[in-house]
From TrEMBL:
This is Glutamyl-tRNA(Gln) amidotransferase subunit A. It comes from Pelagibius litoralis. Heterotrimer of A, B and C subunits. It holds the Pfam family Amidase. Keywords: ATP-binding, Ligase, Nucleotide-binding, Protein biosynthesis. HAMAP family: GatA (MF_00120).
Length: 451
């Protein structure tokens, strides 16, 4: 823990942490030593981790990367963070993120952008770590933490993992409790682990997951020993290669990575088959209707009365306006505007209801594919990490980065991103394995064999 606390301090220029909690870490490590001495070691005993600052942590500032949560010290602990502490993990601090987890670059945080520890070969210009769990990904890649939590609504665990050359797993919706996690889009949000190896994420997920009656969408299913599923034996498994993910204009290096992944699977004895997920093309627009709709509703609670920031006004309405005007950043405001628009009486059917129907079709595509394959292999993102500040004036270009991650999110299915190669200028690239609902074991098995 001491070494990791020092590493967090040394890596401050990355801005991966919003709040460092060194005293707490050392106290937790001491308590952990005592448990270990008493022969009571938990699954993650004494392992220092970063906690995405979207998880409420009792008595520790929780910001969601937003100005509007100024000074918010929760009086309770999220279920997932509580599970991790119960397993013996040690908190190094709260990691930076896009404001309310909205973004793919970690540039929308009120607390400033995060830097990716990687650089292009021969080029020292800083790059984004991806987002929204960019602080977690950067911290793990920079060896500040052994693991970190993320949340994935449309790719926020998998894409930053790919950009930073680490492993990130988005479990099935309902596997990890959302209780105490600041809500973005409730029908999509899902906590998950980020770490250096597939095995580490497998161990971490086992500690994070639990049935939680406090989250009505938590699923009461046994939590398997994911690590034990990693036998390395994928002989005879069938892996689908969805043809709709072969995008026009996709960079050659991404296509080459994908082909390499297919080759590795075949060499390990799996069979790969081309499959069709016909509604893939509609996933991105569908996601960017549903996610902002839910966000606009979830963010209505930040009114200057109950939490954080309050800006004075002459009347209640003026106080709301001033608080929300000042407290939310540009991307959050954009989403609230889109969300309230698509939910408004005149447009509800045309946009929100239509999107919900398309979402069912996307889920059906996957269900049909999984009748004949065990898992699916795709690239995680259409490009490696881009420059710090790039795409900030072009939200559509930013949204396009999520093209490979949002379909599984809409279908509630699990996915894992693993580092699988380097781009031509030396940046990490990720491959994504998608699986059936509550079959994370198969994902760990396949990802482990690819690693
Ligand atoms: N990049 C996507 C968005 O901006 C996904 C974010 C997430 O998964 N939290 O909404």
């Amino acid at each position: 823990t001491e070494a990791h606390v020092a590493a967090v301090e040394a890596a401050r220029p990355l801005n991966a942490f919003i709040t460092e909690t060194p005293e707490k870490a050392l106290a937790m490590a001491e308590a952990s030593d005592k448990r270990r001495a008493a022969g009571e070691a938990g699954l993650l005993e004494g392992l220092p981790i970063g906690m995405k600052d979207l998880f409420c942590t009792e008595g520790v500032l929780t910001t969601a990367g937003s100005h509007i949560l100024d000074g918010f010290h929760p009086t309770y602990e999220s279920t997932v963070s509580g599970n991790l502490w119960n397993a013996g993990a040690v908190m190094l601090g709260k990691t930076n993120l896009d404001e309310f987890a909205m973004g793919s670059s970690n540039m929308t945080s009120f607390y400033g952008g995060v830097e990716n520890p990687w650089r292009r070969a021969g080029d020292n210009r800083p790059l984004v770590p991806g987002g929204s769990s960019g602080g977690s990904a950067s911290a793990v890649a920079a060896r500040c933490a052994l693991g970190a939590t993320g949340t994935d609504t449309g790719g926020s665990i998998r894409q930053p993992a790919a950009f930073c050359g680490i492993v990130g797993m988005k479990p099935t919706y309902g596997r990890c409790s959302r209780w105490g996690v600041v809500a973005f889009a409730s029908s999509l949000d899902q906590p998950g682990p980020m770490a250096r190896t597939v095995q580490d994420t497998a161990i971490m997920l086992r500690a994070m997951a639990s049935y939680d009656p406090k989250d009505s969408t938590s699923v009461d299913a046994p939590v398997p020993n994911y690590e034990a599923a990693m036998t390395g034996d994928i002989r005879g498994m069938k892996i689908g290669i969805p043809k709709e993910y072969r995008l026009d204009g996709m960079p050659d290096e991404i296509e080459a990575l994908w082909q390499q992944g297919i080759k590795w699977l075949e060499e390990a004895g799996a069979e790969t088959v081309e499959i069709s997920l016909p509604h893939t093309h509609y996933a991105l627009p569908t996601y960017y209707i549903i996610a902002p709709a839910e966000a606009s509703s979830n963010l209505a609670r930040y009114d200057g009365v109950r939490y954080g920031l309050r800006e004075p006004g002459e009347s209640l309405d003026e106080m709301y306006e001033a608080t929300r005007g000042k407290g939310f950043g540009a991307e959050v405001k954009r989403r609230v505007l889109i969300g309230t628009y698509v939910l408004s009486a005149g447009y509800y059917d045309a946009y929100y209801n239509k999107a919900r129907r398309v979402r069912s079709l996307i889920a059906r595509d996957f269900a049909q594919a999984y009748e004949s394959v065990d898992a699916i292999l795709t690239p995680t993102a259409p490009s490696p990490a881009f420059g710090l500040g790039d795409k900030m004036d072009d939200p559509i270009a930013m949204y396009l980065n999520d093209v490979f991650t949002v379909p599984a999110s809409l279908a509630g299915l699990p996915g894992i991103s693993i580092p699988a190669g380097l781009s031509k200028d030396g940046l990490p690239l990720g491959l994504q394995v998608l699986g059936k609902a509550f079959d994370e074991e198969t994902l760990f098995k396949v990802a482990g064999a690819l690693e």
